[in-house]
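Recall that a protein's primary structure is simply its ordered list of amino acids. Everything else, from secondary elements to tertiary packing, is in principle encoded there. The following example makes that idea concrete.
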Amino acid sequence: MPPTPRLATRSPLLGPLLLLILAGPQGGWGQEPPWLPKGWVRLGFSPSFWAWDRTYGEGRPGEGAGSKGTLLAAPLNTPSLGSPVLPVLGELEAELAQLLGQPGYRAILGESRAAVEQSVLSFHWRGEVGVTSRLTLGVMVPFVRPRTELVFTLRGDSATANVGPSPWLTDPGEILAFLSAAQTAVSLAGQAHPESPAVAAARRYVEGLSRAYLQGTAFPVVGSAAGRTLQELWDRLRGELAGMGVPDLPQRVPLSDRYFDDDSFARLLATAPVSAAPLDDWTTPWSLGDVEVTAALRLFRGGSRPDSANPTPRVRYQFGMGGLVRLPTGKQDDPDRFLDVPPADGQLDLEAHVVGTVELGARWYLWGQFRYGVQRRGEVLRRIAGPEELLPHRPRLAPLYRTPGSYRELVLLPRFQVAPGLHLAARFRHWAQGEDRHELRPLDPQTLERANYPPASLLDVGTGQELRELGLGATFSTVEAFTGGKARFPLFLRALFVRPLGGRGRLTPQGDRFEAAVSLSWPLRAPHAKDADS
C-alpha cells in the first residue's frame, strides 16, 4: 500500500481509506533528485497534516471536480435511524415482522444528527546513502497519529421512533419471569390439548417473543403501534389458554418503557451483540507505520554543472528508475472502533517508479515521477458490512484476506527560482487505485456455519479511488551552493499547501493538506570531482 492518509476502519466506510492516506506523497521525498553522489548521506524529516469531513462518493472516472462530495456523517444524519445503519436491528425486525404479521415492519430508534471530521498527522523520517554515483539506497520510517472528531446526538420520541432500549437490557428479571410463566402455561395447555390450534399459536408466539428479546438491542415502546399489537395478540392467546383451564397467566407483555437517548444508545453500542466503542472523539496514539526500503538508480543524464572554465548548459536533465518494498510493520485498525482512520496497512507492498528532472537555464526546474504499486494479500480482522451499514455488530467480525487494488500516481512539479536557492513551486498530482478484494480465510466448517457471515464482497463495494490535487509552495536549498563551496550546510527546505481538484470514490478524502520537509545531506568524505555533480 502506498504511504499518505485512507477513511471509516474497521467499519466498512473507513477500512480501505488508509490506502489513499498512506499512498500519497512521501513527505519531503519527491522534490529533491532521488540520487545522491557516491559517498553522500541524506537525512530528512517531513511532517504532514491532512484533514477532511467528506469524501467524493460514487461516480464515473473523471467525474467529481467541484463536487461537494459526501459528508462522512451522512449515514448518521437521518430522521429515522435504523437497520440501514445499524444492521443488527435487521434480525430483530425479522422476528417482530413474523410475530406481528407485518412483513414491512421497521425498527426506528429516532432522529440522529452527527458531525464527523477525520485528520492524520504523520512524521516521516528518511535516511539515504549514495552507494555509487548512480545508485542510492534508503529507508523511510513513518509515525502516524490519526484523529476522529465526532459529535453525535439521538432524539427519540413518539413522533420520531417506535422502539426503545430492550427490557432484556433494562430489566432482564421481568423478561425471565414473563417467559417462564408463559412457557409453563403453554406446556400445561399442550399436555391437556395437544392438537389445539390455539396452543400451537401460543407456542409460536412465546418462542418468537423469546427470540426477539434475546436480540438484546431494542424493543417496541409502550404505546407504539407494534407494542399495542403484541399486547393484543397475547390478550387473545391468554384468553384462549384461560378457557382451557390454564392458571396464573402473566397479563402484561414486557415492552420498552422509554425511547433512546444519547446515553442509552451508547450503552447499546457497548453491549453485545454490537460490542463497540462509543461514537465520540478519538485520537489514536502515535504508532509506527509501514516502513519502506527504497532504491533509486540514475540511468542517464545530459548537461552538467559548469566548472570555472565553461558556461552553464542551458538544458540539464537526469532520468532514472527505482522501487521500494513496503514492510508490514504498522499496526492495523481496531475492528471494535467505528469511524476511525487506521494508522497503517500492515501488508507487504511492492512499487516501481520512473523519475526525471529537467533544468532550463538558471531559473526553471521540472521534476516528474510516475509510480505503480502492487499491494500483496494480507490478513485482516474486519466486520463485514455494506457501505451504508456504518455500525455493524460484532458477530460479523471475520478473519479475512484483503488484497488492495494496485495503485498508480503521476506527479509533476515545476519550480521557478526567485532568488539564489529559493524557488516558488507548484505540484500537480493524479492518483488512482483499483478496488479492494476481500475473502474469508479458511475456517472450520462448523465454525463457518455458526457464524453465518454475509458475503465478504460487501466490503469491496465502491473501494476504487481517484484523486487529483494541486499544491502551491516554496523550496529553499543550499545543496548546490555547498558543493560549490559557497554555503556551510547542504540544506533543503520546503513547504506546500495542497487543495483537491476532483476525484471519485466513496473512500477518497476531500480535504486540504499541508506538507513540510527539511533534509540535510553531506559527503562522508571529500567528494571527487566526478562524484560531486549530483
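The chain has nine helices and 22 strands. Confidence is low (pLDDT under 50) at residues 1-30, 59-66, 529-534.
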